[in-house]
Structures are given as structure tokens and as C-alpha cells.
Amino acid sequence: MVKKSLQSIGWDSFFNEQGCPPQSKLSFPARVIAQHNDVYHLISENGEFTGKVTGRFRYATQYLKDYPVVGDFVQVELANASHHVLIHSVLQRKNSFSRKMPISGGRKMKNGVVDGGITEEQVIASNLDVVFVMCGMDDNFNISRIERYLTLAKHQKLDVIILLNKIDLCERPEAYISQVNDIANGSLVLPISAANKMGLDRLATYMVEGKTIVFLGSSGVGKSTLLNSLLEDEVQATSQTSDYSGKGKHTTTHRQLFFHPSGCMIVDTPGMKELQLWAEDEDLDAVFADVVDLIAQCKFSNCTHRNEPDCALKPAIESGILSRERYTRYLTQWKELNRLHEKKKEYMRKYSKKSKH
Ligand SMILES: Nc1nc2c(ncn2[C@@H]2O[C@H](COP(=O)(O)OP(=O)(O)OP(=O)(O)O)[C@@H](O)[C@H]2O)c(=O)[nH]1
Ligand SMILES: [Zn+2]
């Protein structure tokens, strides 16, 4: 049974200060390393365990975001001499990477904005030190998707590094790199080949004992391939590009935390098809500071940037200072956030009515 010191699994003063019950052989903190339905895999100073939340936890927990996720520290109680524990509580998170709960049963559009589904936060992973957003320099390349990740990460003040993968397949990587640098808003952009282990030495800086990093990106960008290359082991099955039929194609199905020889912890996540925003206006403003600064220079605060005098945005687009596409992408996120704010209010109203009865 693998035992790890608390420090080596990411515990620090932030968690110490939360006033956990005194540790004993039967009651201690553990970190969630994987989840399969309602069964959690945990690691602690006392070894590895599986666990479920208590009935009392379920009863007291209203929101899905408050259930344990990979990366969380939880307070557990050893049920008996077995390797099974009861999870009593989730310690306050330092941060998390979250999105709006995905819509089941197809996407719906309303006024050009994705709409529907439960208006709740879905936590993908928590207590993170660096978030790696991966994108392929191939058909998968999608600038608006990277911008969405940036808004989501900004909401939690997470440090982001953008990995542009499959450089080995790419004739002109500079074109991709400069496009991403233009919108990266200070995040480092690293071209790599996960399969051929090119550019991976630059990642070593972030792979430090006790730190937790996560790989995010759509299906097929190479997250599991990167994990395997870093661990020099086939811990995570990857898909085969040769299998165009899609039959037997392996894709990661659950989030899991792995230990790298450096002592760093790496969370591999399944590809996310849907990436609806869960953020505030100020997060968007920070990610699109170039656009927002121009809008602030328009003479009228309600400028529609069509024909108003002294509009700063329209001439900037016409002269190529700002690309029209970037402005359109900003508007799409802006509309989606407005809709989210409305839906959150509706949801809270419904919820408070329900809980009164
Ligand atoms: N040429 C090339 N192929 C790569 C590279 N990295 C990954 N691939 C291939 O891309 C395909 C998808 O890789 P995966 O690692 O399974 O992708 P993933 O992001 O983990 O996908 P999901 O598990 O579905 O989220 C596999 O066939 C990999 O061999 C790379 O650097 N170069
Ligand atoms: Zn204007």
C-alpha cells in the first residue's frame, strides 16, 4: 500500500489553517486521485483507500460543485480494518477549474448563444498550481476555444500555459504560435510534440514535488500521449489515429491524478466537447483587454460601433489594429455571460422557492 506524506500530496498551510479535526488512525485527511461514479480513490499518509460520501453529506449538500472532485482534500473516517473510508467533508478548495454544467441531449442555441442545461458549476479538478491548455496544430486548432479556456481560468486566477501539440506534423508552426501569442494575454505558449517528446524539457520548471498540474483540451489533442511521455510509461491508453472508423478508438473517460517521478502530480482529463462559460464580466474584460480598452475610448458609453462619431472600435477594425474575428469572439462570450447571469438569477429564484416548501 502506497503511503505518502501530506506535503508530498499537495498539503500546505492553506489546508492546515482550516482547522481539521485532530488526526488519528481512524480519521484523517486524504486527497482524491480518481472518481468512478460515486466511488472515490484516495491517497493519504495512511495509504490508498476507496471511499464514498456519507448519507449526512448527501443530505446537507445542495450543489453538485460541492461534491468531491479529483484534486480535493477530504476528511475521511476509516470504516473498519478494510481499505474503505467514509468521506465526511471536502476541505475548502484553493482554486478549481470549472465550467458550466454541460447540456445533456444536444446543444440548443438562443440568440446565437448556447442555451439550456442546469445552471450550475461543474468542477473539473481542484487545488491546481498550473493549468496546461492543449491544442493541436492541425484540424483541431481553434483560437476561440483557447480564449474560452483563458476566461474560465481567469475566473479562478489560475496560471495557464498553452501547449501547441503535434509540431512534428506541422510545416509552419510559426503561424499557429504567433496567432496564439496574439491572444495569450500573458500566458506562455509552448510548441511541443507529445508523441516525439519535442519541447517537453520546458515543462520541467513546472513539475515540482507537491505541485499539481492539469492537462485540458478537446479529445485527440494528445493529453494522454503527453502524460505517457512524461511518465515514460503507458499509464493512459491513447487513441490510434490510423483507426479512421473510430471503432475501438480509445478516449480517456475519467479524470485521474498521476504521480510523476519529480513528485509533481498530473491530472489527466477526458476531452471536453462543450466548454460553456462559468465566469464574471471582469474575467472576460481581462482576457480581452485589447478589445475592452478600445471600447472604453469610444465617445459614447453606449456606442454600437456602427456609425457613431468618435467611435474607437470601428476605425481600429478597419485599419487592422483589431481583427474583426477577435471582436466577434469577444461579443459571443459577452452574450453568453449575460445569459449566464440571467440564468443564475432564475435558478436561484427557483431554488429558494423550492427550499421554502
Ligand atoms: N503526430 C503526432 N501525433 C500525436 C501527438 N500527440 C498525440 N498524437 C496522437 O493523437 C492521437 C490522440 O492522442 P491522445 O493522447 O489519445 O489524445 P487525448 O487528448 O488524450 O484524447 P482524449 O483521451 O479523447 O481526451 C493519438 O493517436 C496520438 O498518437 C504528437 O505530438 N504528434
Ligand atoms: Zn464605438
Number of strands: 15
**Uncertain segments of ≥5 residues (pLDDT<50)?**
241-248
CATH class of the largest domain, named Alpha Beta
What about the largest sheet?
6 strands, mixed
Global geometry: globular
Query: What is the end-to-end distance?
Result: 48 Å
Strand order of the largest sheet: 12-11-10-13-15-14
Keywords: Cytoplasm, GTP-binding, Hydrolase, Metal-binding, Nucleotide-binding, Ribosome biogenesis, RNA-binding, rRNA-binding, Zinc
Enzyme class: hydrolase
Binding site for Zn(2+): 298, 303, 305, 311
Subunit structure: Monomer. Associates with 30S ribosomal subunit, binds 16S rRNA.
Describe the structure.
It is built from 9 helices and 15 strands. The radius of gyration is 22 Å and the shape is globular. Helix 3 packs across helix 6 (281-287) and helix 6 (281-287) packs across helix 7 (289-296). The chain folds into 3 domains: 6-90, OB fold (Dihydrolipoamide Acetyltransferase, E2P) (Beta Barrel); 96-105 and 118-237 and 251-268, Rossmann fold (3-Layer(aba) Sandwich), CATH 3.40.50.300; 281-355, Ribonucleotide Reductase Protein R1, domain 1, CATH 1.10.40.50. The chain has helices spanning 13-16, 55-60, 143-155, 173-183, 223-231, 281-287, 289-296, 313-318, 324-356, and strands at residues 27-36, 39-44, 47-53, 73-78, 84-90, 96-100, 108-110, 113-115, 121-126, 130-136, 160-165, 188-191, 212-216, 256-259, 265-268. A 6-stranded mixed beta sheet has the order 12-11-10-13-15-14, sandwiched between helices. The chain has a 5-stranded mixed β-barrel with strand order 1-2-3-5-4. By secondary structure, the protein is of the alpha/beta class. The longest helix is centred in the last third of the chain and has 33 residues, at 324-356. Residues 241-248 have low confidence and may be disordered. Helices cover 27% and strands 23% of the residues. The site of guanosine-5'-triphosphate (GTP) has 24 residues, from helix 5. The site of guanosine-5'-triphosphate has 24 residues, from helix 5.
